[in-house]
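Q: Could you fold this chain for me?
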Amino acid sequence: VGIDRFARKLRFAARELPSARFAASDATALPFADASFASVFVRDLLHHLPDPAAGLAEAVRVLRPGGQLCLLEPNVRNPLIRLQTHLVPAEIGARESTPDHIRSLLAPQPLRDVAVELRQPLALRRLALHSRMGLPALGRFGPTAAALRWLESGLGALVPESRRTYSQATAVRAA
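A: Sure. Below is the predicted structure, expressed as C-alpha cells.
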C-alpha cells in the first residue's frame, strides 16, 4: 500500500506499480488500524512535514510488534542535497536532516535494534531527474540513466562517508 497526499504522485506510482494499492492520506493521520503492517517504508517524507515526529509516530503506530521500519531521508551534509534545499522551496526542511536528527526522532518511539547509516555517495540522478529542477524524462532513456549511474559511481568515490546522500534508518517495532 502506497500513501501520498497528492493525487498526481499517486497516479504516477499506480502507473509504475500497477499491482500495488494506493491511497491519498495525510502522513500524520493514516487511515489504518494500529499494527496493520509487517513493514513500513518511509522515503523522503519527514523533512516535508511541519511536525516530523508526528509523522514518524504515525508510521510506527501502524507497524506490528516485531515489524520492520525502514526510513530514508536526505542528508543535508551532502553538497547536492544542500544545493537542492536552496533551489527547491519544498526541500527547505531537509536543512535539518542529518543522521543525528533522524536518531533524535527515532529515540522516543517504541523501537529496538535501531541503526542509522549513510548511503549513496552522490545522487546525481536525484538532481538531474527531479520533477521540479531536473528533467525526469531523461530517466526513461537507458543510455542517459546508465551515464548518470556511471558518473555517480565514479564521482561518488570522492565523497567522504559523512557527506553521503541519504540517512537510512532501520528498526524493529518493540512488543
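A (continued): The CA atoms of residues 11 and 18 lie 10 Å apart.
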